[in-house]
Amino acid sequence: MITTPVPRPTSTKKSKKLVTFAPQDTAGYRQQESPHGLTGLGCNINASKTGDGSLKKLDNLCNAIRSEADQHHCLGILSSNTSNIIQTRVWIPKPSPLRIGPVEVVSLESLLTSYHLPKPTLKSRMTVAVKLASSVMQLHSTAWLNDFWSTSDIWFPRRTSTDNMLERPLICKAFSHITKPPLPADNFPTHSELWRVLDPNEYLLSLGIILIELLEWRNFDSLRKDKSYNLLLKSSGDEKIDRYLAAKQLVDYLRDQYRDNDLYFTALRRCIQGLDHGEKTLASDGYKKEVYKVIVRPLEVHLRQGWGC
Question: CA angle at residue 39 from 37 to 44, to 5 degrees?
Fold first, then answer.
């Protein structure tokens, strides 16, 4: 499945099964191979026209894909109540994943801890960084993405080389059939007054930690424990604060090791330390624009200047 954002009216969110990460592109879509087979396609579709009359609203994504598996035109738009500006179009790629069958996938967490796979190129890792940063802008208030998301949420189709695997990042979620799924459990509960004072945006903090992991191609916890990074860490008894302080120190340490990556570290520092903005939530259009300006855009420019992408 390929999704691309387009201007949209307000609509209602429905449960979905699979989404492919891709940078925002309001001018059109880039045709890509979908790397995963879809399941749960047995329900009836109920589609209605959008305001401009040109695209259908997809109330049941799975059956829409199943019923038009051999078509490669735009199927319609996903229902969402998360934004009055952005809405997502759905395309069936060539070749259709429904004709290919299920493909084995592997998590980013597993790739980072695998010792028998070669380290991917910096270009591949920076490309993933741009896609994930852009996708946070689209998925932050949906059931697809928890506030404390991590490498265990990001998946790739297993392929012959690590670089080829990283071309198609996915996020997979299991959705119940109830109207509103229960909120996910907080993996790092805290009652600390210091955390409330720091008040980082948790989606961006999670992104910052993954940007560190992509840069070093190592699991964050292993970086925290590695004495060669000269981190001055003492457990506070609060895992959220400990992770935040470790990430902040790692940014300072790694900045001295990667002197030709100013734009990358500009974005990384903002993820960890926050933005100079009155709002602190991606629900605010002003805050979202600032996130694009100081995080997503620098990552895009860094990738284009370094590798022409």
Answer: 130
